[in-house]
Amino acid sequence: MEERKYKLKKLIEELKDKRGRHTELISLYVPSGFNLNEIANLISQEISLTQNVKSKTVRKNVTSALTKIQQHLKLYRETPPNGLVIFCGNVSENEGEADIKLWSIEPPEPIRIKLYWCDQKFELAPLEEMIKEKDVYGLLVLDKSEANFGILRGKKIIPKQNIDSIVPGKTRAGGQSAARFSRVREGLLNDFLKEVSENFRRIFSDEDIKGVIVGGPGPIKEKFVENYLPDDMKKKIIGIKDTGYTGEYGLRELLNRSQDLLQEAEISKEKKLCNEFFDELKKDSGKVVYGINEVKKALEMGAVDTVLISEGLEWEECEYLCDCGYGEKKFVKKGEDKNQKCPKCGNQMKIIGCMDVIEAFENLADETGAKIEIISRDSSEGEQLYAMGGIGALLRFSLEQT
Predict the structure, then answer these.
(1) Which residues contact 48 (CB under 8 A, 6 or more apart)?
(2) How many domains is the chain built from?
(3) The dihedral sign for the CA sequence 337, 338, 343, 347
(4) What is the average pLDDT value for the chain, to the nearest integer?
(5) How far apart, in whole angstroms, are the C-alpha atoms of residue 66 and residue 44?
(6) What is the pLDDT of residues 89-124, one digit of tens each?
(7) CA-to-CA distance for 241 and 50, rounded, in angstroms?
(8) Per-residue pLDDT, 134
(9) Is position 265 within any domain?
């Protein structure tokens, strides 16, 4: 899972639990490329309209939230490339008390809708759609009569090409011997499958395609994969499924029958990374490190190729400063006592701020060109990484040599 989507997922989980005692939670979606001045005018109009609300408490809380949004918008000279989403409102659980909080995010994908919504809960559906899997897969359904190619993006099938064959049925035309008819039919089928193979390479060679699923009624699909695909294209096949149809309906049927393969493909990617990590660990090659502080040190040295972080890791990095001038950053578990004494003078240090472990490592990774992979606990390998502390790294070079 990409780290930006992971952070978005955590934000959604946090906001799902927020409830307003009245309709005073504001969701604002600003689409990419939209004029921020128009949004600022919209907020000003809403502040004026809010003065008509009968309840003094609701009127005050909504006005405070709108004013906070108004001030936040002044931080932007223009709408960010993917748009802007702001949530703000009174999230206090106690009647009569105000706790106006604001959350702002520049989403990982372009926002297409403009929305202002005031309710007892935040409107999260457009962001929830972004965290759904949108990996790209190839789909092919075929029989002796036709072949249909499609691209799967998330849950959307994009038809790419249909190829009709001229292979006759098994009943031969009058005047032909059975042997001759069979030879002609086999030759036409061979030509048809060669054409399908050529188009398979053309359509599915894109590096963004994670894998291809082949389906169709009858045995033609297995014959095609086994005898007509070159080895480099065979490696793209992640499964073969029986379907009752070809055509666009057959592509939809193939998708419905392949949910197990699509789920396994994502887990398989994670398992491959984890297995590479554990293999290097067993070899004692010095090409891996694990543990929060060890991985951080390796990142600072520029030695990390890929950081593996378990999803749901409950750590954050806090920055401390003492009156004596001493300062440091330390990782602490969420929910535990963050108070730290200065190792220099022994006095209590002040907390300047804290950030989630993913964000902390993402900042370090950006500086050195390292990649970050969020590993779920849906596989035994992912669970094993979590049990080891939830963080490890594949290195570009052995630290033992430095």
Answers:
(1) none
(2) 3
(3) negative
(4) 88
(5) 8
(6) 999 888 778 899 999 999 888 888 899 999 999 999
(7) 57
(8) 61
(9) no
